[in-house]
Write a structure and sequence with these properties.
This protein is of the alpha/beta class. The protein folds into 2 domains: about 110 residues, Aspartate Aminotransferase, domain 1, CATH 3.90.1150; about 250 residues, Aspartate Aminotransferase, domain 2. It has 11 helices and 12 strands. Strands 2-8-7-6-5-3-4 form a 7-stranded mixed sheet, sandwiched between helices. Strand 6, helix 7 and strand 7 form a beta-alpha-beta unit. It is globular. The two termini are about 30 Å apart. About 45% of the residues are buried. The mean pLDDT is about 95.
Amino acid sequence: MLACQKPRFTLPDGLHYLNCAFMAPLAHAVRTAGIEGIDRRATPHLISAPDFFEESDHVRRLFSQLVNISDPNRVAIIPSVSYGLATVARNAHVEPGGNIVIVEEQFPSNVYTWRRLCAERNLELKVVEAPERSSGTRASAWCARLLAAINRRTAVVALPQVHWADGTLFDLTRVGDRARDCDALLVVDGTQSVGALPLDVERVQPDALVCAAYKWLLGPYSTGLAYFGPAFDHGTPIEENWITRLGSERFADLVHYRDEYQPAAIRYDVGERSNFILLPMLAAALELVLEWTAPAIQDYCRALTKDLIRTLRERGYGIEEDGWRGEHLFGIRVRDSADTARLAERLHERQVTVSLRGDAIRVAPHLYNDAADTEALLDALD
């Protein structure tokens, strides 16, 4: 079991920050990498041509190691989830009369993209509703509904590994099998899971995996990473960047324009991907996550919240059944009689930082949390 890693972060004493699903605090190593990047950018003579490529390739290798991607060239450097999903939508093969399957109350970036594509291409957007909370194992029933919604007319199945509002866990392996049986693309938003919850690309076989980096990857804002499988090998990127072209390493030859792209997913890199401040920060963050490992983070969060969850259930709060939610992210649903305005005041008074998403209090611990944080949360909810 990992020990608490709070000394490796800059969090003020007395703050109970249980909100990594909102934004991860910067670890000391990540912050230091950013400061060093600013200093280097202030003296550009220290930046050489290889720096435009080597640091990007290093980040690709780290992310590939994290989610088990055999070819790092299948990793694109992107600025946001919406950018990565727009790339998918631009290159997805869809036919009028087909459908796109999503689940209820996904994060907006994984909804608006598909609403637009459906409107432009005469497709049906099938939103799989969550079962009533009184229906036993809600997540299991939700997954069954999702599988039933996928059919031969489905072009894309787009969903998260865990639901951003309450941590509901979706069985990506079963969904992926069903999608492939129907010749549909499986597109996964890993923003609220990758880095804290294991995801194996070789096992799940998504066609695309898109992740913002400022949450569980512990990286800076405006950075993200995406895996694009063989279905996208010959696609059209959103931008036509010089650096994604074959032979772009040779600066003197850039006037000899090339139509060929760099291999695999590199064609989908965002412009100015070689950010000399943000990219070193992202690399430092990925190195931390790899050091700790996602399974160990799950174990730590499970041990940290075990007594909290048991006590809350005994007091009438609703939390998804164990095994069907992430240990790092879960929703607490208050009793109907609860005064939510007063609850928000109590959380603020006790310096407990969580998020309200939908009708759930979203709790998202990490290695910088300890028993004092969960005790403060319980006291606020008492």
